[in-house]
Specification:
By secondary structure, this protein is mainly alpha-helical. The protein folds into four domains: about 40 residues; about 70 residues, Dna Ligase, domain 1; about 80 residues, no CATH class; about 150 residues, no CATH class. About 50% of the residues lie in helices and about 10% in strands. The strands form three sheets. Strands 1-2 form a two-stranded antiparallel sheet. Strands 3-4 form a two-stranded antiparallel ribbon. A hairpin with a 7-residue loop joins β5 and β6. It is elongated. The N and C termini lie far apart (about 120 Å).
Length: about 350
């Protein structure tokens, strides 16, 4: 080959490889930039030492997710999040509702992978010290997506409660106070279905037989247990108090339980039950009406339920809080002895200036 042509060919080869190298550099740079947008941290949390969560409501779309993240100033770069979501096909069709825990410095890929998979964190739903249906609905609504109004509506729906084996008056018997693990995006109906499983888990055939042996239905056990629970916080004393009320019930007496007057009054701040409360015309007024109230006056704990199922067999018909305010009670088999006990307690109340 002539020297001139050979020189020209070498030049073409050099140009070719220069172009190849430049394209490779451009491709590598582009690949690096893409890699960086996908994998570099794009989430910032002000107080990262504490767990941080976002809630994605049922029915949310992709734009709702972006609004939630941006609204809490969590995204460093919204544009790269949107671009990565598009590449990973995270769109309206696969947005999953729930409660998600975020971690400081999460990349677009790790964040979108979590959200798209629906890998949410469970909620520890806790309810105790509940006195009314409204309180229960509010407590559940504060912890789950199901609104309090939806929970309350089902408790007041006669047809719905009937399907569960209860009435609107005694539906509180259906709930066993405890801590339960739920996913945040639980509906009202799903909540009740789960509670049905928990109810059946407690009220086994053997426990039901136990209730029958002492002459009560599960609902009646729950009603008595709710009164016992409001009479004492001392678990060791609950079976004794249960025995008093069961003795009265089996004798055909009125229960004359002060906590039922407070429930009928609807003012749970009352410290001293007055005689005037006995005139309240309510089916929950056990001074006015014989038998059991139509439903529980609170959610009885498992300890209170067992106290009724295993109530103490004794001849006590009366009891009164001790004058030392220890939370324990003085028991009596006769009315005369009870009057002496009651007088000591009333005198202690007066001394402390407790009049209502």
């Amino acid at each position: 080959m002539p020297k001139k042509k050979k020189k020209k060919a070498n030049k073409v080869i050099r140009i070719f490889w220069s172009v190849v190298i430049m394209l490779a550099i451009v491709a590598a740079t582009g690949g690096y930039l893409v890699y960086r947008e996908i994998y570099k941290p794009n989430l910032t949390i002000t107080d990262w030492k504490r767990p941080h969560f976002i809630l994605i409501p049922t029915g949310s779309g992709f734009e709702d997710v972006v609004k939630i993240l941006s609204g809490q100033h969590l995204l460093i770069n919204e544009k790269t999040f949107r671009w990565t979501a598009q590449q990973m096909k995270y769109s309206d069709d696969n947005v999953k509702a729930g409660k998600y825990q975020l971690k400081q410095g999460m990349s677009n890929k790790s964040l979108i992978t979590m959200l798209r998979s629906g890998k949410q964190v469970p909620v520890d739903l806790v309810f105790n010290n509940i006195r009314t249906k409204d309180q229960l609905a509010q407590k559940v609504g504060e912890q789950l997506e199901a609104p309090a109004s939806a929970i309350l509506n089902l408790m007041n729906d006669a047809d719905y409660t009937k399907q569960l084996g209860f009435t609107r008056d005694n539906i509180l018997s259906f709930f066993i106070p405890d801590t339960y693990e739920f996913y945040w995006n639980t509906s009202a109906d799903q909540f009740f279905k789960r509670m049905k499983k928990e109810y059946d888990k407690f009220w086994t055939d053997s426990i039901r037989r136990k209730a029958k042996e002492i002459g009560f239905t599960p609902v009646q056990v729950s009603v008595i247990a709710s009164i016992v629970q409001q009479e004492t916080r001392r678990d060791a004393e609950k079976s004794l108090i249960a025995g008093v009320y069961i003795n009265r019930y089996k004798k055909g007496w009125k229960l004359e339980a002060d906590p039922t007057l407070v429930y009928a009054l609807g003012d749970f701040s009352v410290n001293r039950v007055l005689s005037v409360y006995k005139e309240i015309d309510s089916p929950y007024n056990t001074y006015m009406y014989a038998g059991l109230p139509p439903g529980p006056i609170c959610l009885p704990t498992i300890a209170s339920l067992h106290a009724v199922l295993n109530y103490s067999k004794h001849n006590y018909l009366y009891f009164c809080a001790r004058e030392d305010f220890s939370g324990y009670h003085s028991f009596a088999a006769t009315y005369d002895q009870h009057l002496l006990n009651a007088h000591r307690f009333q005198k202690a109340l007066d001394k402390r200036g407790i009049h209502s």
